[in-house]
Specification:
This protein has a single domain (about 5-190), classed as Peptide deformylase (Peptide Deformylase). It is about 25% helix and about 30% strand. It has helices at about 25-40, 65, 70-75, 140-155, 165-180; strands spanning about 5, 45, 55-60, 85-95, 100-105, 110-120, 120-125, 135-140, 190. A hairpin with a 5-residue loop joins β7 and β8. The protein is globular.
Length: about 190
């Protein structure tokens, strides 16, 4: 089932997500719905707060980015083949490499894109959908998508990484989103 995506201004986007246990109600259904919602809205990742759940869960499919790169662009991301993965109770172990800029957007903040600096690599400790423990290092675009989704489970948004002047320049767009004054081709849940 395609779920509505929470719009900028909704308080759930600013909550730090809670760790969950394997008996979290309807977890397999929630994960399936998150995948369906992400693909229906042309996303490459979606976090539980974006579907109105303040828990530490997100899904990422960076394979679709890597697979759509031109051959010469793939050289920009050595060692990044993309992933399709469920991340539960994720916690950053470390980040590394140089910060680099990339133009990011967010399903909860539609029609706003800005360059955001993030580290080249991230090492995460998490469990997968079967609650099997994992610790893995990700790089390139995959690391970026993971860090973007990780921000969501920590109550942060990509716009928080922008300089204050840039954020002030976006204020009217952000206000319009929070008031529901935006048209997108997916269902959104606006703040009350």
């Amino acid at each position: 089932m395609i779920l509505p995506i929470v719009a900028y201004g909704h308080p759930v986007l600013r909550k730090v997500g809670e760790d969950i246990t394997p008996d979290y109600p309807e977890l397999k259904t929630l994960i399936a719905n998150m995948w369906e919602t992400m693909y229906a809205s042309n996303g490459v990742g979606i976090a539980a707060p974006q579907v109105n759940k303040a828990i530490r869960l997100f899904v990422v499919d960076s394979e679709q980015i890597i697979n759509n790169l031109e051959d010469d662009e793939k050289n920009d991301y050595p060692g990044d083949n993309g992933i399709k993965e469920v991340f539960i109770n994720a916690h950053i172990v470390e980040t590394g490499g140089d910060d680099w800029a990339y133009n990011e957007g967010c399903l909860s903040i539609p029609k706003v894109r800005e360059d955001v600096n993030r580290p080249e690599t991230v090492t995460l400790r998490y469990v997968n959908e079967n609650f099997e423990p994992r610790q893995q290092t990700f790089t390139g675009v995959t690391a970026r998508v993971i860090l973007h989704e990780y921000d969501h489970i920590d109550g942060k948004l990509f716009i928080d990484h922008l300089k204050p002047l840039k954020r002030r320049m976006l204020k009217s767009k952000l206000d319009d989103i929070s008031k529901g004054k935006i048209r997108v081709d997916y269902k959104m849940l606006f703040p009350k």
